[in-house]
Amino acid sequence: MTAPELLNEPLVTPPAARRGVPGLRLFGMTAGLQRATLILGLSLVGVFVVAAVFAPLIAPYGFAQSAADGVDFVRQQAPSAEHWFGTSVRGEDVFSRVIYGARTALWVITLSLALSLLIGVPLGLLSGYLGRWPDRVLVLVMDAMYAFPTLLLAIVVSIVVAGGRSTSLGGVLSAAVAITAVFVPQYFRVVRNATVAVKQEPYVDAARVTGASTTRILFRHILANVTQSLPVIVTLNGSEAILTLAGLGFLGFGIEPTQAAEWGFDLNKALSDVSNGIWWTGVFPGSAIVLVVLGMTLVGESLNEVLNPILRTRRAAVPATAGSEGVPGEQDAVDARGKDATDV
């Protein structure tokens, strides 16, 4: 084709790349039971977040309110139209405390995970990239913290941070810092090991040769390539944060009941009610813990199966193997063609 003919050819414009809604691609990568698990987990987490955000609008009473219109609530009253989940031994509405307890849990989860990421990820990057004595010191400290029993470490940190005072903000902050001390070593180990694996890659060497600073190399070139597994860890750690917060409250190291509602504390106070046949003071806070932890765990496991390349490869290999084995007569036809070719 000559040059004039090329000029007369119509230009074909490639179709513009379509941008999907963020998050919907995950649903496209799931199917069957895995998709149902992801939807169930997201539904439970969504209900939890809505209850936490709109707690003042959903709860009919305050979390520490034990009277209305000058009339005290009946203590340990069974569930009724006035009190859907009954009342506690202190005369508080159990439904209101469960709803406000979701707000407390959401605050603690958000603060603890944010602090863990802000501390653990940069330390892991520095340790893995610099190496030498900073790496040895940080690994030693983090391994010591990681070897500590998680709940015991959270109790010690909570006592040190709270200082014997448990205000609304102070109680939430001390619980968040206590849980942060448990999670920081996990993020440090994951990011540090990934950084050690990628710091000798050609693109990192090229950035180093061009004179890029250490900060730019860490946060521009390495960070994006070592954080693929963090969303899964964050989701699973959210459920662990709920259990740790409930453990602190159950043991009496959490938040005072007059400062904020907390499910673990309510379970502790419901222990003496069980022997008297008063089940509602413990069943509803305990059910809230179970459902939230279940939802976050289902989301985390589903994300792990979607984002983990090893599991994704295994799932893709199984249908391919099954398809090749399930076509009747295919192998016989191949053998027959091979035999005919040999005879010829």
Topology (SSEs and partners):
Blueprint (H helix, E strand, L loop, with lengths): L2 H6 L15 H5 L4 H21 L1 H4 L8 E2 L2 E2 L21 H37 L1 H16 L2 H13 L5 H31 L3 H8 L4 H13 L3 H21 L12 H12 L5 H28 L1 H18 L3 H14 L1
Antiparallel strand pairs: 1-2
Explained architecture:
- The protein is an all-alpha fold.
- Helices cover 72% and strands 1% of the residues.
- A two-stranded antiparallel ribbon has the order 1-2.
- Helix 8 (168-198) runs antiparallel to helix 11.
- The longest helix has 37 residues, at 94-130.
- It is elongated and about 75 Å long.
- The two termini are 44 Å apart.
- The model is unreliable at 3-17, 322-334 and 336-344 (pLDDT under 50).
Beta-strand residue percentage: under 5%
The helix count comes to 15
Listing every helix as H and every strand as E from the N terminus to the C terminus, the arrangement reads HHHHEEHHHHHHHHHHH
Helix content: over 70%
Total number of β-strand segments? Answer: 2
What's the overall average pLDDT, rounded?
Answer: 77
- By secondary-structure content and strand pairing, the structural class works out as mainly alpha
